[in-house]
Each structure stands twice: as structure tokens, then as C-alpha cells.
Amino acid sequence: MGIALAIAYLLRLNLTISALCTLLPDIIDKTISAVGGPGGGRYIGHTLLFVFAVSLVFFCWKIRYGAAALVGGISHLLLDIGSLVPWFYPFKNYEFYDDEFSFVEYLKDYLSWDDMRFELLIVAAVSLTALIGLRICRHYRRLR
Questions:
Q1: Which of 40, 42, 95, 137 could anchor a disulfide with 46, C-beta 3.0 to 4.6 Å?
Q2: pLDDT reported for residue 30
Q3: C-beta separation of 18 from 5 below 8 A
Q4: What is the value of pTM for the model shown?
């Protein structure tokens, strides 16, 4: 979420919508898997069709909201690339995991230091770059 929020901040988009749309694929797919559906936590919410449909709904409300939703959804899919992401489902067949999703196991795996260390470094680097960029922009605006 940190990367999506940093991008949305730099583009001056709605941070709340970007954060919601960053979480939405996992909210949808983990719920489907927890009640016995397919996918092992990556199913319809992790598709481009889903991201574009959600973005379209926000776009109809306000163009900048649609852009914020797109930033959140696409950044989530890009950061999940390390494992199965069914980008083009239902237009392309994917072999989904039949494992039942366990939220407790997910938290144990996700909250491991090895995974968090990498993500924290990425968020810190993007945030630092954004802050330096903003300082430079403000400096040049004052010089005019």
C-alpha cells in the first residue's frame, strides 16, 4: 500500500481511494478462498478486468478518483508478481490452487521479518525519493 500511496500522493490523487483499491483484490479473493472458493487467495480480484471495472466505477464518479483506483489496483497486481497473478482471467485459463485459505497462516507468513524487510525498504526508498522531489519542486517554485 505504501508504494501506491506514494504514487497517488505524487500525482495528487485521492489517497483514501488508492488505499482502498490497493487492498480490494486481497479482500475479495481471500474472502472467496476462505469460504471454500478456488484460487488460494488469488482469483478474480487479481485480474486486470477487475481492476479496470473498479476503476471505471470510480471514473464515472470523478476522473481523478478513477485514476487513484487504477494506481491502487495496478500497483497491487505488480507487487504480487512473485507468484501466480491471473492477469487475464477469465480470458485465459489458469491453474488455481485448491488449497483452503487460512488467515492465521497468511498472517504468520506475511508478518515474517524477511518479507517485511524488503517491503519496508521499498516504501522507505519511494517515500524518500518523493520527499526529495517535493523539496526540489518547492525550491524551484520559489526561485521563479
A1: 42
A2: 78
A3: yes
A4: 0.64
